[in-house]
Amino acid sequence: MQLESDLAEIVEGTTRLLVPKGALVEKVPPMEPAFFNPRAKINRDFSIIAYAAFLKTFKGPKVFLDSLAGIGARSVRVANELNSVEKVFINDVNPKALEIAENIAKLNNVTNCVFSENEACRFLSLHSKRDQRGAIVDIDPFGSPSKYIDCGIRAAFHGGLLSVTATDLTVLHGLFPAACKRKYYGVPVRVEYGDEIALRLILGCINIVAGRLDVKIVPLFVQNNMHYYKAYVKVLVKTSDKDEMGYILHCKNCGNRHVTSEVKYECEVCNLKAELAGPLWIGNLYNKDFVNEMIIEEKQFQVDKSCKKILERCIDETDMPPTYFTIDELAHMKHSAPISLAKTIEKIQGAGFRASATSLNPAAFKTDARVDEVLSII
Ligand SMILES: C[S@@+](CC[C@H](N)C(=O)[O-])C[C@H]1O[C@@H](n2cnc3c(N)ncnc32)[C@H](O)[C@@H]1O
Ligand SMILES: [Zn+2]
User: Fold this and answer.
1) Domain range for residue 200?
2) What distance in Å separates the CA atoms of residue 104 and residue 81, rounded to the nearest whole number?
């Protein structure tokens, strides 16, 4: 029995949460009695908005499967804040976390939650059969999600949504390339736009696993803040007719970056040897209609103000090519002070290229211009 004096009440969105007191004061949230990170609130806020947008058009039973639920902060918020959700399954291996989750559900008077203490893959396997699957399946582990992706895909309805979090930043950002290859099938390069590479490696891994299961994925939205990376993909039980895996060639000599479907190392701008990230997802990161729905839905929730700003930046970049330039990186290359983002975008567009801000970095932009063209324009 969890002592009430060990817990503190906070509010996220419109949901009252009981959280371990240590989680509110310690820099690294403690594992005991259960893990809760208050700084992951934005990550959960985005989930609420994305799930609301998704459920608007989802036709089957509106069931949410939270496979690594912790104290149920995300899942009880789903049960409490999304009226259209019919049933929420809250699972974790930690019985103390589940006890807190049950108390949180009671505190919010939600009655559509079912609790279970299972290993995540076992939980998801129990839901991998007709009429038991989830409209939305969430995977939110410590570190890498790669070992849960097979079971997550199998537990999602045809047309359902899989949301996957990764927090193993050192691996995804290139400190341990061998571990990255093992977990995500691809390797990163250490570049300014490393967060985009990380998200593309996560999507690449989901896509490879999905391909094995004769499933097609459609990325709807990706997001990162602090060490949280989250991808939202639609799961369709059909084979993909398009190969959206490839590489990003990056030349550290001249700053050129180039998307390619083949392994090649020569930089087309300066002809020197470049580095190669991948194999990774080179298709779209966002679905424009879905992001538009998220912008509409955001208004009805009590979420962090930054969500709206990030979504609005995201809309402009939905059909832009992979990778981005930071204004600091360009200033460094030009040996001059950085010029404003708005001015940079305006100049590049004025020269006849496409350019947009990016939701992944407030001081960066995407463009179809090459690095040498960008440098000569600015
Ligand atoms: C990052 S926390 C989840 C946080 C939660 N989703 C939230 O939004 O607050 C990861 C959780 O996974 C649980 N866990 C770790 N390994 C597990 C496994 N193999 N099966 C099920 N739960 C597991 C831990 O007990 C912990 O509560
Ligand atoms: Zn080069």
Assistant:
1) 4-238
2) 13
Q: What integer pLDDT is reported at residue 1 of this predicted model?
A: 54
pLDDT value for 27: 85
Within-domain flag for 13: yes
Which amino acid belongs to residue 217?
I
- Which ligand number lies closest to the CA of residue 64? 1
Residues whose beta carbons lie less than 5 angstroms from ion ligand 2: 251, 253-254, 256, 267, 269-270
For the chain, how many structural domains are there in total?
1
pLDDT, mean over the chain:
96
List, for residues 68-109, the tens digit of each pLDDT value: 999 999 999 999 999 999 999 999 999 999 999 999 999 999
Task: Identify which of 98, 142, 164 to mutate to test ligand 1's pocket (most ligand atoms within 8 A of the CB).
Answer: 142
pLDDT, tens digit, 9 for 90 and up, residues 365-375 = 999 999 999 99
Looking up residue 197, the CATH number of its domain turns out to be: 3.40.50.150
Rounded CA separation 128/160 (Å): 13
CA-74 nearest atom, ligand 1? 8
Longest dimension (CA), the chain: 66
Q: Which two tokens stand for residue 253?
A: 């000599």
143 lies in some domain: yes
Tell me, yes or no, whether 260 lies in a domain.
no
Pick the closest to residue 46 from 228, 218, 173, 216 (CA basis).
Answer: 228
The verdict on residue 355 lying in a domain is no
